[in-house]
Every structure is written in structure tokens, then in C-alpha cells.
Amino acid sequence: MDAKTVALDAAHKAGELILGHFRRPQEVHMKTPTEVVTQVDRDAEDIIVHTIREVFPDHEFLGEEGHAADADSEYVWVIDPLDGTRNYTMGFPFFCVSLALAKAGQTELAVIYDPQRRETFCAQRGLGTYLNGTKVHCERDTSIDQAVVYAGFVPVRSPDNPELALPMLIRLRPEIAAVRNVGSAALSLAYVACERLDAAYQDRLSPWDMMAGALIVEEAGGIVTDFAGQPISITSENIIAASNRALHALVLRAAQEVLAERQVRNSADSACVE
What we know:
The protein is an alpha+beta fold. The protein has two domains: 3-136, 2-Layer Sandwich (Fructose-1,6-Bisphosphatase, Chain A, domain 1), CATH 3.30.540.10; 144-273, 3-Layer(aba) Sandwich (D-Maltodextrin-Binding Protein, domain 2), CATH 3.40.190. It has helices spanning 3-21, 39-55, 85-89, 165-172, 185-193, 207-219, 245-273, and strands spanning 28-32, 35-38, 60-63, 75-83, 96-103, 106-114, 119-124, 128-131, 134-136, 148-152, 178-180, 199-202, 223-225, 239-242. The strands form three sheets. The chain has a seven-stranded mixed sheet with strand order 3-4-5-6-7-8-9, sandwiched between helices. A five-stranded mixed sheet has the order 11-10-12-14-13, sandwiched between helices. Strands 1-2 form a two-stranded antiparallel sheet. β7 (119-124) and β8 form a beta hairpin. α5 (185-193) packs parallel to α6.
């Protein structure tokens, strides 16, 4: 089997497990003071790893629920078995399985599976993006004033909260039509690829939250970078994805203005301390 076939098989198996436990009683644990996890997350990741490892025993894994890849590995699967766990535990039907295969640090294959809607987004570098086997493309040239944008926020109490998303939104809100925040960065990125959203950004993410979605948007013809305007990689911590260059430039400008203001303020605070 090739990598695409294996990835689809792994994502669908994990998705069926997730769907089978949806809206059923389950224990919810706090992974951090602001992050929840269930046994379903862990079991789904185990299914993904086992399915892939049967075919590719030498590949490494980087996963949200504990798998850590060797930094020198040529092939690394970056996996989020259940993106949108808090939604899942509350019975809110917006969550997905997210898989990306990186070769020498570059994402070559991506699968995002929404088991609730039976929707599979799949992209391979240079071969385009498909939704349930039909090619999708960012063809709608939405004007800025009609744009609908996903804005992802880190919980206020999170020690990793960079506090960039909200000040960015304050700048963007007068320019755009509407904002959405639906609790799954991966699935929201896939929605940019198929034009259900015009742009998406979040100020603090892990690789498993965005690497699959980044390739899916890129292969659909969208524009994807981090807040510095650089390509997304396994070390990226934030993301901007848009269906066209004008929207991407708008969000990127907001990010860089907020970052510049933060730097000036930090410099002033340091000077006061000295």
C-alpha cells in the first residue's frame, strides 16, 4: 500500500472509533490547566500509529497524545487523533482526525477526516486537494469586506498564550464581514480550502494542529504562512491561511503590527526595570 492509502485507512479507523463514543458517558481529564483529554483521544492515536506502523515500520510519529519523533528521522507522521476534544466532550459536532506525513521536514501528504459529516480532505504535494474524491480549489476571489474569517484563541489562563489573536481581531473586525471560532483549527483550515471560510488564523498551535491543514490549503491554491510570513514547518507556532493574497496580506499585516507593538512595549518595560 502507498502512504495515501494507509493514511486514509488510519484516519477512517480512528474516526469511526471517535464517532462510536460521541455523546456517550466518558471520563474527561485535564492534560493541562486549560486542555482536556479523553481515553478516546489516546485510543484513536494508538489506532493510527498501529495502522501506519504495520506498513511503514521505520517511520516515526509526532502526536498530541505522547508520541515523540526522533529529530533526525526522514519520515515523520504528525498526528492529532482528535482535534477539537473540548467540542467532542460537550457534544458539539465539530472535530476531526488530522494526519500529515513529513519527509525531511516538508509535508508531502495530509488527511483531515470529519467522521460526523463523513468528509475526507486529502492533499499530496503537487497533486492538489480533494474532498471525498472531488478536487477543490480556492477559486472565489472574496473581497475583504465580505470575508468570513476563523480566529483561533488560546485560553486566557494558558501559560503559552501569546495574546496576539485578540488584538489582531480588533484590527481586522472593521475590515471584514464576520468572524468564526468553532474550536478545531485543523478542520477550519480544511474549510478554507473548500471555500466555507475565506481565511483562518491562530496565534499558538502545535505542529499536529496545523501541518495537515496547511498543505490542504496550499494544494487548493490558498496562501499559508506563519505570522512572520514564513512557510509552515514542524517548528511553526502560529498560522495564517487565506483563499487569496489580499486576505492573507490583511491578516499578516495585523499580525506584524501587533508583534511590533509588543516588541516596543517589552523594550519599554525592560528599560523601566533597568
